[in-house]
Design brief:
two-stranded antiparallel ribbon, Rna Polymerase Sigma Factor, Chain: A, 2 strands, Arc Repressor Mutant, subunit A, 10 helices, mainly alpha, single chain
Length: 207
C-alpha cells in the first residue's frame, strides 16, 4: 500500500492491466462457431475472422468443386463470405454454422454459373505437348482422373454439387440435404440422375 503524494490518502499499488486485445483474442479463439457468429452479428470485430480461419480450407475446396475454374471459385467464395458477413443476423440456428457457410458458398457458385453460362476448357500449349509435366507411368491414372473430373462438369450444377457432396466429400444423403438446403429426396434424385448422365457420358467417350 502507498500514499498519494501530498494527500495522505492510502491507495493500492498500481498494477499493469492485462491487454484488452489479448483477452479478446483468447475469448474469440475459445468460442463455439455459434457464439462467434452471434458475436459478429452484435459487432465483435474479430469473431468473423476466427470463423473464416476455422473453415476457410473447407469452403475453398467446396468452391473449387462447385465452379468451372479456380478464378470463378475465388470470386464466388468472395461473394459468399461477403453475404455471410452481412447476413449473420439471419442465421436461424437450425443447422451447424459450417453447414450454413457451406450452403452459402454453393449457392454463390451456382449463381455465378447461371449468370456466366461458362464452359470449362483446359488450354494446352505447344510446350506442354512437347514436354509432359507427368511421368509416363503416371499418365494413365492422371488421364482417368481428368476424364472423370471433366465429365462431372458436363452435369447440371445442382446434380454436380449433390454428387460431389455425397461421392467425393463423403456426406450422407441427410447431411448433404442439410448442407445444400434441400430435402433428402431431392439429393437422392439429383445423385441418381447425375450418375446416369455420367455413365452415359463416359460410355459415349469409349465408342
Amino acid at each position: 500500500m502507498s500514499y498519494a503524494k501530498d494527500s495522505g490518502v492510502a491507495t493500492e499499488p498500481r498494477t499493469r492491466p492485462a491487454s484488452t486485445a489479448v483477452r479478446t483474442r483468447h475469448r474469440v479463439c475459445e468460442a463455439t462457431d455459434r457464439a462467434l457468429l452471434a458475436a459478429h452479428a452484435q459487432g465483435e470485430p474479430h469473431a468473423f475472422a476466427e470463423l473464416l480461419r476455422r473453415h476457410r480450407d473447407h469452403l475453398w475446396q467446396t468452391a473449387l468443386r462447385a465452379s468451372y475454374t479456380p478464378e470463378d471459385a475465388a470470386d464466388s467464395l468472395q461473394d459468399a463470405l461477403l453475404s455471410a458477413h452481412r447476413g449473420a443476423g439471419g442465421f436461424r440456428g437450425d443447422s451447424e454454422v459450417r453447414s450454413w457457410l457451406h450452403r452459402i458458398v454453393v449457392n454463390a457458385c451456382l449463381d455465378r454459373i447461371r449468370r456466366n453460362k461458362l464452359r470449362r476448357t483446359v488450354p494446352l500449349s505447344d510446350e506442354s505437348v512437347l514436354e509432359p509435366l507427368y511421368p509416363r507411368d503416371d499418365f494413365a491414372r492422371l488421364d482417368a482422373t481428368l476424364v472423370v473430373d471433366a465429365a462431372l462438369f458436363t452435369l447440371p450444377a445442382e446434380q454436380r454439387t449433390a454428387l460431389v457432396a455425397v461421392e467425393l466429400e463423403g456426406y450422407s444423403i441427410a447431411e448433404a440435404a442439410v448442407l445444400l438446403g434441400v430435402p433428402a429426396g431431392t439429393i437422392k434424385s439429383r445423385c441418381a440422375r447425375g450418375r446416369r448422365r455420367l455413365e452415359e457420358h463416359l460410355k459415349s467417350m469409349n465408342t
